Hints:
- The complex is a heterotrimer of chains A (177), B (505) and C (425).
- Chain A has 177 residues and is α+β, with helices and mostly antiparallel strands.
- Chain A has helices spanning 12-15, 18-37, 79-83, 120-124, 150-155, 169-175; strands spanning 62-64, 89-95, 103-111, 130-132, 147-148.
- The model of chain A has no long low-confidence stretch (mean pLDDT 88).
- By secondary structure, chain B is of the alpha+beta class.
- Chain B folds into 3 domains: 2-91, Ubiquitin-like (UB roll) (Roll); 125-209, Alpha-Beta Plaits (2-Layer Sandwich), CATH 3.30.70.20; 271-451 and 464-480, Rossmann fold (3-Layer(aba) Sandwich).
- The interface between B and C is medium-sized, with 36 and 33 residues.
Amino acid sequence: MVTVKKVQRRNLQTQSYIPSLLKGLGFTFSKMIKNLFNQDKMPTLNYPEEKYDYSPRFKGNHVLTVKKDGALRCTACMLCATNCPADCINIVASEHTDPAVEKFPIHYEIDVLRCVYCGFCEEACPVDAIRMGPEWQTAGVNGSVFNYDIKELAHRPGLKGGAVSRVDDLERHKAGI
Amino acid sequence: MFKCTINGHEVEVPEGASVIEAFKLLKEDIAHYCWHPGLSIAGVCRLCMVQIDDGPRLHIACNTLVKDGMKITNQTEVVKEAVRWGMDFHLINHPLDCPICDQAGECGLQEQYMKYGQYDSSMAEKKVKKRKVVDLGERVVLDSERCILCSRCVRFTDEVTKTNELGIFNRGDHSEIGTFEDQPLDNKYSLNTVDICPVGALTSKDFRFQQRVWYLKDTDSICTGCSTGCSIKVYHNKEGLFRVKPVFNEKVNGHWMCDEGRDLYKHVNAPVRLKQILKSVGNEWFPLGLERALDHLNEAFSKAENISVLITAQHTVEEYKALKNWAQQLQDKTINFVYWKNNPESFDSFDGLLIRGDKNPNTKGLLEAGFEFADASVLDSSDLVLAPMPENPAVYPKYMEKLEQLSKLQTQLCLLSVSNITQHETINFADGTLAIPMKTAFEKAGHFINHQGLTQKIHKGRVIVKAALGLDELLQAIKIGKWIQPQLLKSRKTNESSKVSGELW
Amino acid sequence: MSESQLLTEHYHKDTYKSLKGYQADGGYEVLKKAFKMEPQAIIDEVKASGLRGRGGAGFPTGVKWGFLPRNDETRYLLCNADEGEPGTFKDRMMMERAPHQLIEGMIISAFAINSPKSYIYIRGEYDQCIETVTAAIKEAYDAGLLGENILGSGFKHDMDVYYGAGAYICGDETGMISSLEGLKGQPKLKPPFPAVQGYLKKPTIVNNVETLAAVIPIIDKGAEAYKAIGTEKSSGTKLFSVSGCVEKAGNFEVPLGYPLMDLIELAGGLRPGRKLKAVIPGGSSAPVLTAEECLTAKMDYEDLSAKGSMLGSGAVMVIDDSQNMVDLLGVIMHFYHHESCGQCTPCREGTGWLSKMVHSILEGKGRIADLDLILKVANQMKGKTICALSDAAALPALSFVTKFRDEFEDYIKRGHQYAAEALHV
């Protein structure tokens, strides 16, 4: 069975769009004027002059933590590289002159263009050597700046001298672990 | 033959076999560290506990001989509990070094812990601290804390090399492996101690921190270091070859191999390799495309009347066969084969264990290929010398001298080289000399015949230099005159070597 | 009393040390008698006497001698004088007071098993013993009692003294053999047993000082007479070293089966005003007996093993109520931790672990859960190793913690207080 429905013809009220237009413009201008005089209450930011501080738990750019003496905490165990689903971490290990340290990375590079910011590296790390920090801007002009090396990861100015790792070998040694 | 029952499965073992051997024969799981088929029985790890004929007392499987009709089990709760605790005793003083330990990934402690471990730690006391990063000798580093004192390495230096460098010092849980003063571990087989170490206590200086083992793949091959032809596994990844380890082969090398053989992977890696075809013009090398090179080759070979082949025993049986066929097809030319030995004076020497003076893997294969060898003096009168060079020119110093001599005579050479020949600045090669990159034994398949006449197969592993050719592939190209895609030669079916892959640690 | 003093009857005489004095009291007469017997007859006599090893394990001596393979291989007789078991000092007295008694016993035993060479392995700390025994051997050589053709019997025997470097583990027979061979003193895997493959891979018999000396009265008086002393299954006399909280500590030779309380009385009884708390009846590796168990305990192999302990080396350590069991266990565990040879994992790691746990209780850092862990660890150390050191460490830990659990729990609860007190002392 076919039901035929009669389409209602447009009337004057629906055909004249002017009132709706004015209504919309009115709303826009009222907001504009409101924001113009109360700029501090505005929810948006004037990026890039103003930047938003994310929560410290935000998984943004990688940070390599340091020991109290400022040396890299990383032991070059390669668990982060092994765990990395994007295969973006490249580490070259070497023997340290201090036998208490034994192994350390002479080269640590993250290709952030490949990185998917999953945080698996942070989870895999047994010594709290890599964290994902609140910084999130990865803009750059040419390809090489997207390969973050040790200098960028551990000693970039934003870290203000480096993030200190929670895992301390000396204390572990004292505890007999 | 004795019949015994292991965990309900019946198995026949030869008389005098121990219970642990019966377990291995049946491929039944049994935990163990100190027992090693190539060494004497120490019976100190106390992990291979079994229950015999349902008796209440547990026995160690390694020091118990199988008797006819014995009923053995290691699946009862008593045994399992004992093994769990045995694992715990091993672990309580073991450091949490896995992240920086090279053994991680192929560690006996990790593997057996996953199988038999207790899974939660009950030790709240401090661990015993011992020496770390101890330099034992030229090739081995010791970490005493990681050591579980299975005494395998001590027994190895005591029983196999009979050099007795290692010993266990001190008592109780302060016991440590060590060397005597001024007596470093520097015998020619020292790296075997690293292989048999079930944990990361002994590590190889050469491989230390180079790679995590889970990034490596392995290929079965034969050591090309000498005519013994030890069965080996070559470990590699996309960055190159990283190490060589022996594989158990009852007929050839048993469980061991020499340190020298382990260095052989070094000449295979990209930095020292010849990567493209080069042509010498006026003491300078110019790269050449494959097509151009082949044109050049065919021209040179068709022009030359008197061709010599300077051959060593470093190539496969298949390559010699191809060489022979090639020579037969060029009957209108004089082709002389010159067999080059590296060290005639110590050629037949043998150290009593594995190392032989004949530093070629396939001497028997070359001699059996049916060549008629000419005297080396024919080289001087040749128009063209085809020289498939030895893989590692370092062990063939005189070969290089000969090439130098020939180039002084302005003889045209066709070199097939693994190493980067252009680095020999002292040699001024004749114009038109071609240097073609050659495949190493790790990059091709084929067969070697060792000193005892055993034909052993090598497998194609990772290709490091894509442009490299095998001798057979090159000859095929010269014969046909135009390049065809090289095919893997059909491998011979007779592989007499009885290979039983042992556990690595 | 005197009929039970088979060995120590003349020990009070100073002259007994010398050959002359020893011979004056009938010394080396039994040797002459033995030389008239067939070697096999001596072995049979020892077997019939029911003599059991006095060193600790209590293995029947005659049976052990019977294990020797019947071939012409050189045999060795080793005298185990490495008296390391804490609390034991009987061998020391025997060697200091009557070295010739040991030598005579050894010659008879060597004659029985046809051994041309014997060694006396003396504990390195026993300077006096080494001195007297060495002097006595020299005397015996000079008198023709050692060397070629002893007393015209045609039997040749040489004897030497070897002293240890202070390792408890060398008191184990295979550990001693390793040490004698010049190796690190570590027990060897068994089988093969020493009687088949021992010193220098030759058949070897290892016996304790007291066992070898006890051969003399057996040959002298006959197996029947020897068997009449003691109980039915534990025949003969035994020297007990009584020490600890008694008035007059010392060695006492009594027939086996002697009541423990009487033995304590022999040693002068407890100090006035003290109550018996516990007794370790057979050296530090024997499980402890509570005061209640002591009342009915008889000093023989069967009764003590029925009570869950063992006769061991016969070192009776008496503990009264002034002593703290946790403290004692700490000392014992430290000893075994220090003495473990480090070969077998359960012992190497287990002794250390036990010692650390007991010491953390002692330091006031213990947890109640530690007690169960001590029991678990000790249980897993039992019967899992090459030699008996692991058991020796596990058994006292097990018995102390099970039998005196209240005291341990109390110590843990008031741990800091105790630890502080201990520090003040």
